[in-house]
Amino acid sequence: MFHQTPLKTGAVLLLATAAVVYAFTTGFFGLELLTEVAILAIVAIALDLVAGYGGMVSLCHGALYGVGAYAFASATVLLGWGGGAGMAMAVAGGGAFAWLIGAVSARTHGIFFIMATLAFGQMAYAYFFDSPLFGGSDGMPGIARLDLSGAGLDLNDSRGYALFCTVLALLAYALAATLLRSGFGRTLVGIRANEPRMRALGLPVWRHKAAAFGTSGALAGLAGALAAQHTMYVSPGLLHWTVSGELLIMVILGGLGTLVGAVLGAGVLVFVKHEVARFTDHWHMVVGLVLIATVLSGGRGIFGQIEFLWGRRGARRPEPAATEGSPDHA
Amino acid sequence: MTADASFWIVQTLNALQLSMLLFLLSVGLTVIFGLLHFVNLAHGSLYALGAFVGVSASAFAGSYWAAFAVAPVAVALVGIVLYVALIRRMRNAGPMNQVLVTFGLIFVFLDLFRLGWGDIPLGMAEPDLFSGRTEFLGIVYPTYRLFIIGLGLVVLAALSLLLSRTQLGAIVRAGVDNGDMAACLGINVERVFFVVFCLGCALAGLAGAVAAPVLSVTTDMGTAILIPTLVVVVIGGLGSLRGAIAGSLLIGFVQTFGAVLAPQAAAVAVYALLAVVLILRPAGLFPARG
Amino acid sequence: MLEVRDLSKSFGALAVTQRVSLRVAPGERRVLLGPNGAGKTTLFNLLVGELAPDSGLILVDGRDVTALSVDARARLGLARSYQKNNLFAGLTVHENLALSAACAQGKATALLADSHRDRGVVATVEEVAERVGLSELLDASVDTIPYGARRRLEVGLALASKPRILLMDEPTSGIGPGGINAFHAFLHGLPAELTILIVEHDMDLAFGIADRVTVLNHGEVVFDGPPQEARDSALIREIYLGSWGAEGGGHA
Question: In the record, which residues are listed under signal peptide (chain C) (predicted)?
Fold first, then answer.
């Protein structure tokens, strides 16, 4: 079960503070990285919501992210809508597509669920890759950022945009945490733990899973809209299944089913890629080896390990041993 | 143009050629899953490895047949290393961990190819024996592509015989049907797994070497072929030889004819087909177990 | 309350349920007896919808539920416990019971409120934990509690959904004589209006708690009547003793 423990709250505050301090001390390139981390953190949170807490391991979150980006681009460039309406469109588009995928795939499990999501994701990729309306393989340029000048914010300034994305990432975390603490989230964890029993207790499991997947897709769609505005350009590459794979790596590295880990994983992967790229252009190999090592060691991921050590520290105190039976994660 | 009979014959041959390539890849993947319950996303990378090794071998020996002989062996050797180091201990780790580890392998292979062979697409010459074109039924068709089709059929026949007539085949069929039962019968399941895994790798390597003269050899050719291969395996039914044959033909034809008849819809059609199969028959068209 | 008419189910040539008819009155304690493989668990699976019958009808309060899904039947007040523990692994006893209570109280999909701290849910969790003797273990993970406690939680999960009809599949299996006495007490403490069906192996226990006994053999109802009559029935004695003989009880 999910609990917003003091450790989690502390970690989130620390990460948020670090992001703000970094935003005001770094240059253009650092701000670009920060923006990327904040955006990917939102998708990783969305993925952890279904994979870590719902047991639905998805290989289509890259596609949901991409659908959000294309939805924003189409709404603003093709339809001439405003940025706000475009963002709403991205959330709705990602959510609707994800709900559909969830509804169709909810009855499959294990590797079949993974394959089903992979297939749907690649279907979207193939569609945008071949579609002349959306620019085909060239994608769509000329995307403008949301205009918040009324509120005194200039999102065309890279610091302003980085902070904007950071705030949205924080809101995404708050939303996910609230959802996981609610009856909806508790039940989702129940489904992961024992789906047939949840059904026997009277829950329409299929509807619940589809709703969870849809919510996750809406968050991924929001991130897609931010990514489209970040680079001011969308391309089918956003939807490719390897993007989904990288998102899964972030969640695993940070700690599956910890929520904070998703944010941490996004940060670590983006910065590792960037740092490794300074020495060699073979970051793929480094990331691949790290991933293999993490999984082989039966790893809990970075934040999972922190929570584990923290829990052990707590258990050593002369308190009743009952704390041992209520781990904070999962 | 579509009314022209030769058009249909040529496209049918193209579809068959793609189907045979997909078959060489998917048969290994599917039998490995059926027996070991292991999904190897790096199977496409093994195919790419076969192509790269093939390019080097044929360049070194000055003959296509060096590639044909060396690539399967080399890839099988790499398969042995993978099996001992990774696959064996990942067998009971659950689908997510298997997907992750083999996804990591894709990344590792990608950079190994770049380190070893560079980023520039490589080519490989056809064997002299099958170079040029053949005329029949009023069409002119590259001889080497006919060779691919023939080779696929030969492998198919050999595997069918292996499965139906030999002791190893009987064990494999029993293992796919009921793994615990096979273990109870005192069969050394571990050794059978190992042999099957190596055979699957060798076939992937063979597919790479065979495809090299037709396609350009690039670092991402493995990821490009992986998805259609997975689609074949899931549509056919994980673990099923008949499913691999049917799935390969289905995808080969849909993709080839789709590309010339309705280029807009072709790419989506393959995945839509998969989605329909998953909804109607979640275990695939020819499920391995009843 | 609960009525079954001519229910049949076969797996291939093997008829596991043959024209079974039952009528259980509100508040009745009904015990299903029968040797291994008599089709008791299969009948439960058919009643809750985990298996679809080949023919026959299942009625709850006169309403035909034969075509309803497992979850829809549960929402009508049909709950079951399993012969093999079927709990939410990795979660605490409190979380297990709360998942069940929240589902029954319509809190399972609440988007803001924490269902596990909801007053109604917590009240049910504490009441059920008290009934099944798990009050001391509420915060323990189900993976760490002893077998007997897990067995009681299995029944508690069904009970926490506040059912009107409770099906218990061998609730006393493997818990020893002390546990069986406690089960007696537990059963007497349940609300009188709750309709209960229990699959039981132990004849003495069954006769002690049943208002009425139904005996199954090879998927057929061979006896239906009050426990005294069952105790004296030569047929039942023969079935039970026969099941130890060479013929065996068939499949599991």
Answer: none
Sheet of strand C55-60, all strands in order from the earlier edge strand to the far edge: C14-24, C2-11, C55-60, C63-64
Chains C and B, touching by 3 or more CB pairs within 8 angstroms: no
Q: What one-character DSSP code corresponds to residue A75?
A: I
Q: Are B122 and B52 in contact (CB under 8 A)?
A: yes
- Cβ <8 Å between B268 and A123: yes
pLDDT at C244 over 50: no
- Cβ contacts of A110 on chain B, cutoff 8 Å: 94-95
- The mean pLDDT value of chain A amounts to 92
CA atoms of A128 and A130, how far apart (whole Å): 5
The answer to the question of residue B189 being in a domain is yes
Asked if the structure places residue B242 within a domain, the reply is no
How many domains in chain A? 1
Distance from CA of B131 to the nearest CA of A (A): 34
Are the beta carbons of A115 and B99 separated by less than 8 Å?
Answer: no
The complex's ipTM works out to 0.92
Question: Where on the phi/psi map is residue C195: left (φ > 0), alpha (ψ -120 to 50), or beta?
Answer: beta
Q: Kindly calculate the radius of gyration of chain A based on its CA atoms and give it in whole angstroms.
A: 20
**Per-residue pLDDT, B181:** 66
The DSSP bridge partners found for residue C23 are: C3
Q: A59 to chain B: which residues are within 8 Å by CB?
A: 99
Structure tokens at B103: 């996804």
| Buried/exposed A162-183: b ≥16 CB within 10 Å, e otherwise | bbbbbebbbebbebbbebbbbb
Residue A247 lies in a domain: no
> B220: closest CA among B109, B85, B75, B57?
B109
Cβ contact (<8 Å) for A201 and C99? yes
DSSP character string of C156-215: HHHHTT--SEEEEESTTTTSHHHHHHHHHHHHHHS-TT-EEEEE-S-HHHHHHH-SEEEE
- Number of domain units in chain B: 1
Each of the 330 residues of chain A gets a pLDDT tens digit; together they read 899 999 999 999 999 999 999 999 999 999 999 999 999 999 999 999 999 999 999 999 999 999 999 999 999 999 999 999 999 999 999 999 999 999 989 988 888 899 889 989 999 999 999 888 999 999 999 999 999 988 888 999 999 999 999 999 999 999 999 999 999 999 999 999 999 999 999 999 999 999 999 999 999 999 999 999 999 999 999 999 999 999 999 999 999 999 999 999 999 999 999 988 888 888 899 999 999 998 988 778 999 999 999 988 766 554 443 333 333 343
Sole residue written with tokens 């705030």: A167
At C146-198, the pLDDT tens digits run 999 999 999 999 999 999 999 999 998 888 788 888 888 899 899 999 999 99
Per-residue pLDDT averaged across B147-169, rounded?
A: 90
Residue span(s) of chain C under CATH 3.40.50.300 come to: 1-77+166-179+201-252
Chain C contact set for A179 (CB, 8 A): 111
Q: Chain A residue with minimal CA distance to C85?
A: A197
- Candidates A163, A144, A175; CA nearest to A37 is A163
Closest CA relative to residue A185, chosen from C161, C137, C143, C98: C98
Short-list B279, B285, B201, CA closest to B247: B285
Q: Which residue in the set B95, B96, B274 is minimally distant from A119, CB to CB?
A: B274
Which domain, by its residues, includes B73?
A: 23-220
With respect to residue A212, please indicate whether it lies within any of the assigned structural domains.
Answer: yes
- The reported pTM is 0.91
The identity of residue A231, as a single letter, is T
Cβ atoms within 10 Å of B10's Cβ, excluding its own: 17
CATH number of C1-77+166-179+201-252: 3.40.50.300
Tell me how far apart the alpha carbons of residues B251 and B261 are, in angstroms, rounded to a whole number.
15
Q: Which domain holds residue A58?
A: 6-240
The answer to whether position A228 is within a domain reads: yes
- Could you tell me if residue B15 is inside a domain? no
